Structure formats: C-alpha cells, structure tokens
Amino acid sequence: MFFLVSGLRTSFTLFGFRVVECIAKASFGDVQTAQVDNLERFYEALKSRSTDAMVVFLQNNESRITTLLRRTQSKVVVFGADVSDAAALFIHRYNRPFAAAVRVSALAAAGLAELCESASVVLYPKLGVDAKLLPLVQSLALFYGIDPDKAFLKRVAKHLRIASLDSTTTIGPLLHKFWLEGTKDAADMLSDEERGILDALDQSYGELMVSGGYETVSWPIGALYSPIEKQIGFSSPVELVGQARRLTYGPYLHLPAGDWLFESVLSVSENQSGNKMEVILRERHTARAQTTFDLPARGRLAVTLRFMIENVRNPVEIYFSVKEAGIEGIVEIESLRFQKYKPDEPSSTS
User: Fold this and answer.
1) Which helix (H) or strand (E) segment is 238 a member of?
2) Pairing of strands 225-226, 217-218
C-alpha cells in the first residue's frame, strides 16, 4: 500500500509525515519512505519498493504527477502550512535572498493547489501546539481505510515514542521535535514590507488550496520588481513624467495550470496630456496575453486579460509600461488578481 503525503516544507508538514509513517508501521510493520519531486523519481520510488507499505512525500509537485494521481484516483494527504513558514525555512537553510524564498515557496503552494483539485485529496490545516493528537491519527487512519481500534492506537503511540495516545494527548511535544531551528530567527529579520508580502501570499495561496485551485488569487503590489533597483519591492503610485519606459515587472510567482483571467485595477490622476499603457502577461518567456490602452486624465479602470498556464513550474511575469513620454500624470497599480475558469464555464473572454 502507498501512503502519499504532500505539503509545504515546514515543521508541521514534517510532523504530519512522521505521523503517517507511524500509522503505516502500526498497520504493516516494515515501511519504506521516499521523497520525490518529479515523475521519473516517483516511478523509481515505486519500482524500488521492497515492503508491503511505502510512505512517499511529494515535494514541489509537478503537473505530470498530479495528472497521474487524478487518473489513478490515488489518495493523498496534504498538510497545510503558510507560505511564510516555508519562505523562512528556505532563507535559513539555504541562505537565499527574500525574493528567491518567495518564488520557491509560491511554486510549492501553487503545486499543492493544483494537487488539491483531485477528489482523492484531503487537506489538514496547520494545527496549534494545543491541538489534540488522537482525532488527527483517527482521521488519517480512516482516510487510508484503516480501523483505528485500541490495539492500533497503542502501536501508533509506540512508534511515535509517546507514553500514550488518548483524548488528552496534544501535538505540541511531537511538533517541537520537528521544529526547524533558525526559522524563527529568519522570520524575525524580515522587514515590515516583506512580512506584508508574505501575509498576503499566506491568505491567497491558503484559500487557493482549500478551494481546490479555484479561489481568487491576489498578489501584493510590493511583490513586483522595481526597474531601477531590479529587485522585489515596487512602490506605487508612480509619476508618468519622463521617457516611455517600463514601470514595473515580475513578480515571477506561480499558478496552477489552466485557463485564467487576470485583472488589475489602475488609478490615474493629473494626466491631462494623456498617455498610453501596455500590459503584457508572460508564462516564463512566452507572452500569453497583452493589451495597449489610453490612460484617462483621471479615474479608475480595470485591465483584464485571459490567458493559459501550461505548467505550474513556469513563473508568471507581468509587465506594465508607458508607451509615450510624459510631462505629467500619476498612475497607481491598486491590485493584481487572478481567477481560474472552471471547466463548465464559457470560454468567451470578458
């Protein structure tokens, strides 16, 4: 039997993987474990199995694995976590800059959202240290078709190396064993602006996973790149005075594969002489949609583009540019929103 587990790489996910491993051991005895990040390694893990049970952690999910699991109606447990937790771990463990941590964590979250579209996936939200362990073990066992009777629970407790597993047992002591030292220090070193970006992504990707990939995704404006510093941290509004130029680009984040509608609300003021703006949306290096339009003297307008994402691993780039030299004017990018079309929705653009 295969016990498939996934989630953002955080302390809670590692704790959850360990609980599933102990459930498998309590049911089958000897158990193999594996971690895979692409279809080839997934097949290699399955072929190398030498025990009756194997616990496989699917990390950085790709569309091919998701398609296979959906086709075979495989059961997968996903442990929920925040993008901010995964980003802090990435910064600490690999000593990478904030922007890289955001991109990697957003990729993992988008991959999980794509995986959660499968009807055979159950999502366990992140639990606090005072949460009870027994209901979690019982629920996981039942999901895998195992009867969590008293004898079984006693064996699970033995494999977890805890004295007992009853209604008073909390997850705190076990979760602490998987607490990844240094992640809190990395999180504490973030600026207020960086924390704001992660808070926004926590909410959007969390809702996306819960909805099975169809909740609206909002990306924070601060995740866009400044064309001058060429790094994350774009600040809006922007004056239109000067040469035709690119105002901002990025944020190189990720969305599940499928048909999407992008909407950005712009606010324009003091633009009596007029100007033109171009918005281009790209998947990696391929332009998927673009539009050019006149900016009003003042007012708010919504820019909408329909586009297709072929692979969740490809980053999404949005380019905002003014096409004419300006002597006045201010433009503010108020929002970046994405809504995925469901299969039964009409294909005509809005």
Assistant:
1) strand 238-239
2) unpaired
Q: Residue 47 corresponds to which tokens in the numbers above?
A: 């072929």
The answer to whether residue 115 scores a pLDDT higher than 70 is yes
| Total-model pTM | 0.86
CATH of domain 2-186: 3.40.50.300
Which helix (H) or strand (E) element contains residue 17? helix 11-28
CA dihedral 339→344→349→350, nearest 10 degrees, is: -60
* Pairing assessment for the beta strands 330-333 and 258-269 based on DSSP bridges: antiparallel
Residue 213 sits at φ, ψ, to 5 deg, of 100, 5
Question: What's the pLDDT tens digit per position in 128-172?
Answer: 889 999 999 999 999 999 999 999 999 999 999 998 899 999 998
How many other CB atoms sit within 10 Å of the CB of residue 294?
12
Residue 337 host element (H or E): strand 337-340
* For residue 181, pLDDT beyond 80: no
pLDDT at 184 over 50: yes
State the pLDDT confidence band at 348, using cuts at 50, 70 and 90.
very low
In this prediction, residues 21-48 reach a mean pLDDT of: 91
Positions of CATH 2.60.120.200 in the chain: 216-340
Question: Strands 31-36, 121-124: parallel, antiparallel or unpaired by DSSP?
Answer: unpaired
CA dihedral 106, 108, 112, 114 (to 10 degrees): 70
* DSSP code, position 221: G
What CATH number matches the domain at 216-340, 1.10.10.10, 3.30.1330.40, 3.50.30.40, 2.60.120.200?
Answer: 2.60.120.200
Spatial distance between the Cα atoms of 67 and 73, rounded to a whole number of angstroms: 10
Contact assessment for residue 26 and residue 61, using Cβ atoms and an 8 Å cutoff:
no
Residues 6+ apart with CB under 8 A from 42: 36, 56, 58, 65, 68
Q: Which of 138, 145, 256, 169 is nearest to 204 (CA)?
A: 256
- Average pLDDT estimate for 278-297: 96
Q: How confident is the model at residue 286 (pLDDT cuts 50, 70, 90)?
A: very high
